[in-house]
Design brief:
homodimer, alpha/beta, 12 strands, Rossmann fold, 3 domains, DNA-binding, six-stranded mixed beta sheet, Catabolite control protein A (chains A, B), CcpA (chains A, B), 14 helices
DNA sequence: CTGAAAGCGCTTACAG
DNA sequence: CTGAAAGCGCTTACAG
């Protein structure tokens, strides 16, 4: 017994109106006589008619679906952003196609391609830097893309983020007060966010304190607890007595690793972490941290995207798009907890 | 300058074949002469033709998209499951529409409705219990649904999970060895997973040890660190000296709360947590835990769903569907760490 | 192995 | 305020 799908055609004939009229009431078009509307609404209700979004998407060229590429859904930082994105998306009646890129360029490309194939109306890109292939995909499409919570090598893309340079500078400066050698622990040194923001911020802090920074104090690590934990020996060997870490998982790993090596935090080693996810308060000692409006970064990104998507619709060919500065920099802060003196 | 979309029609005319033939080569249909295939493939490449998945979805009634409802994307437990789901989905060329339900029935209903409107081929439902409305949605659709990582009040739904009753029983029994009063901390007492699995398991453990359980030792809490932290006083007041908690965030909260109240874990209070997410190893002391194959629960759910989706296609009306037992129970275990003696 | 044609379920000008 | 008709970009029998 195949359930016979009831379509706009069924409704139209039951209500003795045209499909166009049914379409109008479904879409809230005001140009419908109240009586007609009422009649149609009744039939819709009686038949429990549900518009087919796929058909609508094909006809209207709008899918009310956005693509969200996330490096790792199990990383609290990105998960918080995703929560903000989802809330706003839902508010605007958008669905989100979420796909993990594993921070891998090959995956990211596949993911983006498949999102375009599905005709998403926009994309939120979380991740550091974009491969040439992905950049090409973005450029050859008319679909707006916004970068959330990072800064990439593609500066034609609008981005919502904090001032990573300043944040890094501030954290490093704080640490420099009580310590001669402050380590910086980040992802890839060559990624844009690190090369152009965090490392310069780190250097500036050294300059501010009239000291020369030592590049050997800059460590690369993937965003995982284990890598942080494994870093202990190498960091200690440099004589560093403090560290700023861009990722909370790594920071938690380092913190616990230090403890297990008998190094006391903050007495013998100070730590400031970068994202203030819940991890920061779960560790003992709790970690002092740069604070970020994580949820808001996601929410603002999605809001910006909705704006771009509707402009896209109107402006269409008005390629004026002086896309000068659709970038938005949110405020960050600092919270002192137990991992600093 | 609207970019002129290039469609299957463009390819067909450039290659001097019919759209049907282009469709065949795109879909890997073997009934195409090698020469023809080659010619078409060349044109596709030259034009950089990308099939429109929306049109395909409308015509074929398959969207290669699945809906995933998740109570809270920022909860490590669900995020780990989602990772497994996404990996397998990607492997099978499915995209996933991910939506947070906030563990709220109203939201879940909206979310599910909008997934059906988007014509998803299947749904993975994470969450405890399903409202009547949602159940009705599920039943009135032909779309297969699988429940991942819980057990719900709708036992017509296939589910992938562990044996929560046994796990709870084992954990409680362990704790009962050194403690007279062992608390059980769960979500809602009336949810199916708790009423039919965890509470009975808890009681059995008491029976096994020839003791009478005290229902006042069963606490309800939402899955958050803060609630766990706030629970300390109430739990201590009962005289309990140990607890099994179903959620790691709550457990971490309790653990830290205990510490801040000067109660030593495990010396004065033993803790076993339920999900073995990364939190369990980040806290100090690290938490002993029931272990679960989190990623696999997600992966197996998705695999099961793909199976159901293709059966659905074939069986179609063969409603035989003795849906006897598509349930799959994965193995759990236990890992001793530092929160137990 | 290949093509012509209908159809998927909507929306969108266009007329009136 | 309403309807007839074309069209969105594919797939799917059906014929041959």
């Amino acid at each position: 017994m195949e359930k016979q799908a009831i379509t706009i055609y069924t409704v139209a004939s039951e209500a003795h109106v045209s499909m166009a009229t049914v379409s109008r009431v479904v879409n809230g078009n005001p140009n419908v006589k109240p009586d007609t509307r009422k009649k149609v609404l009744e039939v819709i209700k009686r038949l429990n008619y549900r518009p087919n979004a796929v058909a609508r998407g094909l006809a209207s060229k709008k899918t009310t679906t956005v693509g969200v590429v996330i490096p790792d859904i199990t990383n609290d930082y990105f998960a918080e952003l995703a929560l903000g994105i989802d809330d706003i998306a839902t508010m605007y009646k958008y669905n989100m196609i979420l796909a993990n890129s594993d921070a891998d360029d090959k995956n990211a490309l596949q993911v983006v391609r498949s999102m375009f194939a599905k005709q998403v109306d926009g994309i939120i890109f979380m991740g550091h830097d974009v491969s040439d292939d992905v950049k090409a995909e973005f450029e050859s499409s008319n679909v707006p893309v916004v970068v959330a919570g990072s800064v990439t090598n593609d500066d034609s893309l609008p981005v919502v983020r904090i001032d990573y340079q300043k944040a890094t500078q501030e954290a490093t400066s704080k640490l420099l007060k009580n310590n001669e050698k402050v380590a910086l622990i980040i992802g890839s040194k060559s990624s844009t966010i690190n090369a152009q923001q965090r490392i310069p911020g780190y250097q500036k802090a050294y300059e501010d304190s009239q000291r020369q920074y030592d590049h050997r104090l800059i460590f690369e690590a993937h965003d995982s607890y284990e890598e942080g934990y494994a870093l202990v020996d190498r960091i200690l060997k440099t004589g560093a007595t403090a560290a700023f870490l861009s990722d909370d998982s790594i920071a938690a790993g380092l913190l616990n690793g230090l403890h297990d090596h008998g190094v006391k935090v903050p007495e013998d080693f100070e730590i400031i972490t970068g994202n203030d996810t819940k991890l920061a308060t779960i560790t003992r000692p709790m970690m002092s941290s740069i604070t970020q409006p994580l949820y808001d970064i996601g929410a603002v990104s999605m809001r910006l995207l909705t704006k771009l998507m509707s402009e896209d619709q109107q402006a269409a060919e008005a390629d004026a798009e002086q896309d000068g500065n659709s970038n938005v920099i949110l405020q960050h802060g600092f919270v002192e907890r137990q991992s600093t003196k």
